[in-house]
Amino acid sequence: MKTILIGAGAAGLFFAGLYKKDLLILDKNDQAGRKLLATGNGRCNFTNLNLSDDFYFSSNEGFYSYALRTNDNKDLIVYLNSLGILTTNLPSGRCYPQTLSSKTVRDILFMRANGKFIFEEDVLDIDFEKKLVITKDAKYAYDRLVIASGGKSLPGSGSDGKIFKILKKVHSLRDFSYAITNYKCQNPLSKRAKGVRVTAKASLYIDGKFINSSTDDVIFQPYGLTGTAILDLSNQISYGLFKNSDIRVQLDLLSAYDFKEVLDILSALAGKYKDMTLRELLTGFINEKLIFDLVKNTGLREDIKAKSLSAKDLKKITASLKGLEFRIKEINDVENAQVTIGGIDTKFVNPKTFESKNIKDLYFIGEVLDVDGACGGYNIQWAYSSAKACADYLNKN
Ligand SMILES: Cc1cc2nc3c(=O)[nH]c(=O)nc-3n(C[C@H](O)[C@H](O)[C@H](O)COP(=O)(O)OP(=O)(O)OC[C@H]3O[C@@H](n4cnc5c(N)ncnc54)[C@H](O)[C@@H]3O)c2cc1C
Fold first, then answer.
1. Stated pTM of the model
2. pLDDT digits 0-9 by tens, 144-167
3. Which of 22-26, 151-155, 254-258 has the lowest average pLDDT?
4. Ligand 1 within 6 A of CB of 221
5. For atom 8 of ligand 1, which residue has the closest CA?
6. Which residues 6+ apart lie within 8 Å of 366 measured at CB?
7. Which of 224, 202, 220 is nearest to 211 (CA)?
């Protein structure tokens, strides 16, 4: 029984470590886990202590539930520990290797993997009838084929999506987009605010309906918004863009204070420092590089004297501080998006074994499937959960 695995990325490496039978692994790169090296800013945020279906998205909702439940975050931590990868986590729940180096994870998964690896072997075609994987110089016969070729994001890492042309011959694909990335806004802040990083509560509204929020870093760029809070909301933003919905992100720049507290403090200051300008009043509230845009948003001028501010003006300023609104126009950076939306239509894949319902002995694991996880370790968790479910089934059958 010969099994071929296409892709030595996260899912492929997990599979190769868990599969106990004869295995040949083909990857177009010259080394395993190239994308894995880039994960978590080089630190590999491999899972999250807060794991639930809420952090996963697919056009076939719930497809991911079984694998995630049977091979969850605790299971992954125990597995990594058993390989000799010690782990740690942040208060946010994000889990990392103790070394805080993704190279540790890549190296150890590769060292402990079973099977024979052939690198720089680009799969150019697959003959699903004759069960042959075709590369430039060879044809490899298989009994079982496991495809772990990833999505389309960060194409330089090997997952350039070319393989989808081959897979399309036998499987329907869901439309592609990208998530865990940054966004162009219709109303970005001016260049004065370029690169300013704040901690804010970012709330996402799609077609007027509140969807989700995240309190973390937000970075203002001339094109629009980036930062961890935006990455946290990114899957839902990208799905909204897909549907041409009206997408707005409201930033609460003073989330530790409620509206009345901010208004009271601002009103008291305006009463005390009557001859100071609005800019001077706000200097202790937010990064001074943001004051111009914040005040412009209210229709007031920075140099207006405190004594001229009406109660209505003070409310407007408070509203701007507590709900600076951006309209999201489009994805800014497709190439460096951390995850691909879309891929193999999971309606035609068994959620327990990951076998194709169209073609016997063909399996899909990881990001090649139409499943995307949120920012925070959920995609490597998916690579593991799907690989483990598939390997467990194949080890027994
Ligand atoms: C910058 C960045 C940071 C990220 N950070 C995190 C993070 O901190 N936490 C997290 O959970 N997720 C993170 N992700 C997402 C995560 O890396 C992916 O979801 C995960 O690597 C997917 O695993 P995979 O094995 O399915 O695909 P990949 O890891 O992309 O592996 C696919 C493999 O298949 C090979 N391949 C593709 N086509 C062919 C072909 N035709 N022939 C031969 N080989 C082929 C590729 O060379 C590649 O090695 C990040 C992604 C990026 C881009």
1. 0.95
2. 999 999 999 999 899 999 999 999
3. 151-155
4. no
5. 40
6. 7, 9, 10, 11, 12, 148, 150, 382, 383, 386, 387
7. 202
